[in-house]
């Protein structure tokens, strides 16, 4: 593919091996010092915020963070158009992906708040993170240095505004710490572009399904992996992978493996990109918005996504999704339509509960014949043991729970249990992008 | 089975499938207003009752609006 858009991005990586609070926010040899007062002042510039505090969690520590809405990798645009995480919470929507970007690797800014996504459809915040023990090890976050923003907005605001306010606050902290690298030379850099390659290499596109909360909540922007801030049900988007490296695909989300940090560090995307020109010709990313709500809509979006892949000249497509339930229909039918157009597909997915004899794929169409499984979707099926007590809690001291052991901050879960005690793991564990190293014996 | 995602119901082997409206409101459409919403819902339910008394030899679709993409177009 020619680079007519001039999409060349230098990504400078600053590894973070410790975070401490200190007098001035700065980065020095892996140590990130955070001026807590200055970082919280940036958060409080938004008058909707009424409570905010910062705490640090380190790998191996006996600490639990609850409720976790998002984990963000701090990234900042140093040179070139736009801002990182564009379009989110009213940020600049200039097309990104060019110039130079700095990232603080090995750390995350955690968005900790009681703000629920909304009060319908079961989309309640249910993620908690442990920094030690078997449950912590199942996620990439327990290996990160975490800077946790515990934040509450004005309770009188509506769901949309409260969601917007707390994510904007987390981005303010992310911006504040990332800016510490602005004048520094990165310890390592990597240049990303889709340069011309051997024309005989197979042409591969990544079809990346991203859930839309619109149908269930009516929310156009507030939560879910957004494209330039939008989570509406929209036709498929063609994205340059550099746009994603600059955060054009990002947002807080209900499953731990689709939070901003995992989207920014998606190992499948990085591998597709780094092997461009060697093993294949990587054509880019088609972001397929999911959770359409009629058969016609689901089939139409599948048809059009496959058509777009065909127009790009794809020989092959890898497909992921980030949800569970009816979104599967447009994803599996996109695979069927791609196969019908001669585009070979590989589907990376978690599997559903098969304990009652149901198929582990909601609609197991025969065209989806190359599947990589990232394990079972439900922690119960997976046999994850109860999670032991911890010495310290960051965030809320209690969480609600029902008799089915689903636990969240949502309505209808009135039994409160102490967060520091033994807890069941959240009911779902869906590794959307292939982070984990779980294995099984059949 | 009344289903908004009726093809899925058919591919997974339900014998009598009635085409519903949307996942959010399977048996009606509040956007039509109270009277038309009621008429549309009644059409879906009576189609389902008719389906129950119809012999089928395999997964079969019963469509209350005869292929129209919305109930409004079908003048229910």
Describe the structure.
The complex is a heterodimer of chains A (about 450) and B (about 80). Chain A is α/β, with parallel strands linked by helices. Chain A has one domain. In chain A, about 20% of the residues lie in helices and about 30% in strands. In chain A, the strands form seven sheets. A six-stranded mixed beta sheet of chain A has the order 16-18-14-19-20-21, with helices on both faces. The termini of chain A are far apart. The mean pLDDT of chain A is about 90. By secondary structure, chain B is an alpha/beta fold. Chain B has one domain. Chain B is built from two helices and three strands. A three-stranded parallel beta sheet of chain B has the order 1-2-3. The mean pLDDT of chain B is about 90. Classes of the chains: A alpha/beta (about 450), B alpha/beta (about 80). Chains A and B meet through helix 8 of A and helix 1 of B.
Topology:
The complex is a heterodimer of chains A (442) and B (76).
Chain A: E1 8-15, E2 18-21, E3 26-28, E4 31-34, H1 36-44, E5 49-57, E6 63-66, E7 68-72, E8 75-79, E9 99-105, E10 107-112, E11 129-130, H2 133-137, E12 145-153, H3 159-178, E13 188-193, E14 203-211, H4 214-217, E15 226-227, E16 237-239, H5 241-245, E17 249-250, H6 260-264, H7 267-274, E18 281-290, H8 295-311, E19 316-320, H9 327-340, E20 344-351, E21 371-376, H10 379-382, E22 392-395, E23 398-401, E24 407-408, E25 415-418
Parallel strand pairs in A: 1-9, 2-4, 6-22, 10-12, 14-18, 14-19, 19-20, 20-21
Antiparallel strand pairs in A: 1-13, 3-4, 5-12, 6-11, 7-10, 8-9, 15-17, 16-18, 23-24, 23-25
Chain B: E1 2-3, H1 6-11, E2 16-19, H2 34-52, E3 60-62
Parallel strand pairs in B: 1-2, 2-3
* Shape annotation of chain B: globular
Helix/strand class of chain B:
alpha/beta
Strand coverage percent of chain A: 25-35%
Q: What is the rounded Rg of chain B?
A: 12 Å
Tally the structural domains of chain B. Answer: 1
Give the integer mean of the pLDDT values of chain A. 92
Name the pair of protein chains with the most residues at their interface, and give those residue counts: A-B, 13 and 13 residues
**Whole-number tally of structural domains of chain A:** 1
